[in-house]
Amino acid sequence: MIACYFKKNPENKFLNYTEDKFDNIIFRWEWKDIYKTGKYDVYDLHKHCPKCKCILNQKKIHLARAVIAMLWYCPDCEYKIPDIKIQKEHDIIALILHRAENK
Ligand SMILES: [Zn+2]
């Protein structure tokens, strides 16, 4: 749990905001309320294939015994994207929280 979000209004419209596109990848997540704090965490954040929406899995590319690259691939349609082309998870969460403020 990296970040949390304060309740902004009684309707909590941001709770319906659970999917968005960043870096050409579809991200889906859940909002989890933190007991007795009035705050929400982004959790269960997953990357999904932009073509078929399947969950992307991670693959390490080895050279000799060293990991030289990481990529995300779709087990369904074989879409691939290098990990370095996607922003880090804490940045994605920051973007989600920022966009949630305007919901
Ligand atoms: Zn796919």
Write a structural description:
This protein has a domain of 66 residues. The mean pLDDT is 89. β6 and β7 form a beta hairpin. The relative contact order is 0.23. The protein is mainly beta. Strands 1-4-3-2 form a four-stranded antiparallel beta sheet. The protein has a three-stranded antiparallel beta sheet with strand order 5-6-7, with no helix packed on it. The two termini are 21 Å apart. It is built from one helix and seven strands; from the N terminus they run βββββββα. Bound molecules: zinc ion. Zinc ion binds next to loops.
Secondary-structure map with pairings?
Layout: E1 4-6, E2 19-22, E3 25-34, E4 39-48, E5 57-63, E6 66-73, E7 80-82, H1 89-100
Antiparallel strand pairs: 1-4, 2-3, 3-4, 5-6, 6-7
